[in-house]
Amino acid sequence: MAETPQLLKLLKIAKLLKMLKLLRVAKIKRIIVKFEEHIVTDSMDLIVTFLNITVQLMVVAHYLGCFMFAWGMEEFRGGNTGWVKENSLLDETTWTKYITSVYWAFTTMSAVGYGDIVPITNDERAITMAAMITSCGTFAYTVNSIGNIVKRYNQ
Description:
This protein is an all-alpha fold. It has a single domain (41-154), classed as Helix Hairpins (Orthogonal Bundle). The chain contains six helices and no strands. Helix 3 (42-77) crosses helix 5 and helix 3 (42-77) runs antiparallel to helix 6. The longest helix is centred in the middle third of the chain and has 36 residues, at 42-77.
């Protein structure tokens, strides 16, 4: 009987891993690469590269926000008070839920973390820490990409 809560946690994680099937964003990358092949001027290349970085940041924020919201709903269904219930999002519109989740992701990614949306349960805290680590890598990649753009543009 003591293994039942751990089994339920594993089932929750397995359900959330199904979301990884959505990572078919590689097709978008191929389209962007084909588009970049047709760019002739340096200024257009600069604009497209910045646009590419922005889209990548938005995709990471989208997935982090959706994952956190899904986990918050699982916490609620499990009888725990999570961040979704604490922020009174249960009766809100889908748009409000999405914007709030992505807002949390962007504040976490930018290391600002205003504190208005905070993880409540230990599982939510663990997800937030994983999101912070992911965000550090994304931020480092973005800064490096911008540095490479500026270096290439100055040559």
